[in-house]
Amino acid sequence: MTALTPPAGARMGAVPVIVIGGFLGAGKTTFINRIINSFPTRKLSAVVNDFGAIDIDADLINLGREQVIPLRNGCICCSLQGDMLSTIRYLLDQPVRPDGIIIECSGVSQIGDVKTALLDAVFWKEAALDSVICVADGQDILEDPAYFAQSLRAEQFRDGDFIILSKMDQMSPEQRQSVRERVLAQGKRAEFVLDNTAVQQMENLLFSFSFDYAATPGRSRGLRASDAVPVQPFASLAWESDRPIAFDIFQQVIGAHAPTLLRAKGILYASHAPETPAVFQMVGNRVTVGAGHDPEAGTHRSRIVFIGYEGQIDLRTLRTDMDRCVAE
Amino acid sequence: MYDIVLRNGRLIDPETRLDVIGDVAINGSAIVAVGRVEGTGHKEIDATGLVIAPGFIDIHAHGQSLAADRMQAFDGVTTTLEFEIGSLPVGHWYEQQTKTTRLLNYGISVSWVAARIAVMTGQDINHAPLTLMGRSIRDRRWVDDVATDTQVSAITAMMEQGLREGGIGIGIPNAYLPGAGVKEVSQICSLAARYDVPTYTHISFSSNIDPRSSVEAYTRLIGYAGSTGARMHICHFNSTSLMDIERCAELVRNAQAQGLRITVEAYPYGTASTVIGAPFFADPAFPQRTGQGYDALQRLDNGQHMTSREDVLRASAEKADNLVLWHFLDVESNQRHRDLLDISVLYPGGIIASDAMPWTMPDGSTYMGDAWPLPDEAVAHPRSSGTFTRFLRVYMNERKAVSLIDAMAKCSWLPATIIECAAPTMRRKGRLQVGCDADICVFDADTISDRAEFTAMNRPAVGVKYLLVNGQPVIEAGELAANASTGQPVRGCYRA
């Protein structure tokens, strides 16, 4: 087995899409630039909201102009799919297909709408929703006791798979802790501070092309990320099976291990449809399962990579539980 | 001598349950004979082996352009109506259509969205419905705010004027106006009830969790029907009910059984279904087949198996956020998912409607040109090209879940019956009867199929051999035949 490290622009199933939301001034553009700089060998395209007047965000993003596409009608039309469809189709039709797409939601738009639009089955096979990231101003959270009382903010938090906290660098350790606790109280556990190390830490969580599920059956080993150095503080398990998976047990296993998992991705062959590859993707506590393309078509081999924090993820039990999903 | 005679086809009239081999004669824009036609026509069309049915009526079509008409023509549609969002001023919208080429009959509902934008933000509302929503988002008060009593009066007054100008009912896309209050919506429903016109609702919430669940939204809609007497049509029942479709369908059936005037539409495309926690693929036969199955499951459920990981379990039990959200996107290979889609698509008395999107260019503008075939870069959703033909291919031909005549009822006659209270001319559409409009779809029932997909959205459907709109051929021998406006406006006509 060789690792999957396709050249930039190679056709490898669906192009992963990251959605980034957050309020105006929270630091979304900074974060997007950090992502772009972190994947120098990848062709990334960014879709930004443009309300027609001045295309500010598009100018601030460190990509060639042709790779930054303004969404003319803003996110309400994403929710109606029109703009989103045409923009993504346009990007996928370029001579060199992007390796990943970043969609920036304007500060006032609802991430949930974009997420819903991207979860259309027609989209999924070509451009699959990868992760939803909410960038939030830590200083605001610290200073505004009613921060989460605003419904739009609460919804943006709820819709984010990962939360990025910005403007934390001037805070005392106690203040940082207080902000973190407020974020945790919103039911978010995967939060990162937007500083120089944050994106490095997240590289293995962003974009499924960082994944490599080529592994020896049943043996756990460190994750190999194709673009980044591995990989503290994460631990990972590569699991595979030649026999189909009992999906109901699999769901229970994922549910039980969800608190310790940050990401998982793979190809599944379920016992109720043993001939059909299903692409499985877990980001935070959100799982997507859909018909997809198996680059090793014909092998019918289920394989999944799981990633969690070192010290939290229980690799041994996870492997045992996964083995129990294999249908007799 | 007739203008056109369609010969020797399988005649289908869903209202009278006519299903015989015969002919149809047309003079001008009307059907003048159905059955065995003795005289000849200036144009004789051999329909041997083909179905002759009323043209399809799509009451949820956002396209409203020559390009959209052409693609829908190949999908069997002869009347295409934008009712979910609507427009204001209504008179202006109809006037605009006369300045473009429209192949299919067209019509519009009164736009609650436009009234809110005008009254609550003062922005210009003179745009196509979806463009208007996008353009107006800079000032979000129309989306987020509860309207004052004065504003509600102004909104309903604008909408009433829209009804007087011929708007065919009222679009209530509540999901896009989450800030609007129940009092305001109830006023709008009362307005609709007073004029005896339908409302078309995109329910306010789509979620399987309370609060703000789909069930809550349907219960509200049923409440409006009961408390105001309004006719409430539910848009895309399939996409907004998610995993609760069985329960939602039960609630709607109960409401209908009590005489409430609620109707339902669906399109036959899978949408993402989100479910929390519970196993979705649960197979009742599993324990018998595997010998381990439920033992293992139970242990996981009650925790005995998990003793080695007490921390994990405790976290899982104590924190609601540890529940996993599952999105399923796989109608094709998943029986359970397909069953759920079937509930909305095959809902008794429910209709097929496309929710067809406008054809959009890479710069975000709506394609208004006349190139044929459509430019490759023009993009919509595949359902803009293949909703009805996909329904016929999958449900009638492949799965035999619906008969030809029942399928035709869901595509033409039933849609007409939903809106004829508002637009009495619709009593002449959706029927293959003498005196009715010659809006006719002639198709090969064996080969009819959608062909559009994500990478080729502008691929027209196949199987429609002839399409007549007001007696004028739009498709002949499977090819696009019309370049002039064969479509006519459908308008509301009220007695307030």
Please provide the ordered H/E string of secondary-structure elements of chain A: EHEHEHHEHHEHHEHEHEHEEEEH
Overall spatial form of chain B: globular
Question: What's the total number of strands of chain A?
Answer: 12
Total domain units of chain A: 2
Provide key terms for this protein:
heterodimer; A: 328 residues; alpha/beta; Hypothetical Protein Yjia, Chain: A,domain 2; 2 domains; seven-stranded parallel beta sheet; 12 helices; globular; B: alpha/beta; TIM Barrel; nine-stranded mixed beta sheet; eight-stranded parallel beta sheet; 19 strands
Outline of this structure?
The complex is a heterodimer of chains A (328) and B (496). In chain A, 30% of the residues lie in helices and 25% in strands.
Descriptive account of the structure:
- The complex is a heterodimer of chains A (328) and B (496).
- Chain A is an alpha/beta fold.
- Helix content of chain A is 30%, strand content 25%.
- Chain A is built from twelve helices and twelve strands.
- In chain A, the strands form two sheets. Chain A has a seven-stranded parallel sheet with strand order 3-2-4-1-5-6-7, with helices on both faces. Chain A has a five-stranded antiparallel sheet with strand order 8-12-9-10-11, covered by helices on one side.
- In chain A, a hairpin with a 2-residue loop joins strand 10 (273-283) and strand 11 (286-291).
- The model of chain A is unreliable at 1-11, 51-56 and 212-232 (pLDDT under 50).
- The relative contact order of chain B is 0.18.
- The longest helix of chain B is centred in the N-terminal third of the chain and has 16 residues, at 149-164.
- Chain B has two domains: 56-274 and 329-422, Metal-dependent hydrolases (TIM Barrel, Alpha-Beta Barrel), CATH 3.20.20; 279-322, no CATH class.
- The chains are: A alpha/beta (328), B alpha/beta (496).
- Chain A: InterPro entries: CobW-likC_sf (IPR036627), CobW-like_C (IPR011629), CobW/HypB/UreG_nucleotide-bd (IPR003495), P-loop_NTPase (IPR027417), Zinc-reg_GTPase_activator (IPR051316).
- Chain A: Residues 234-326 form the CobW C-terminal domain.
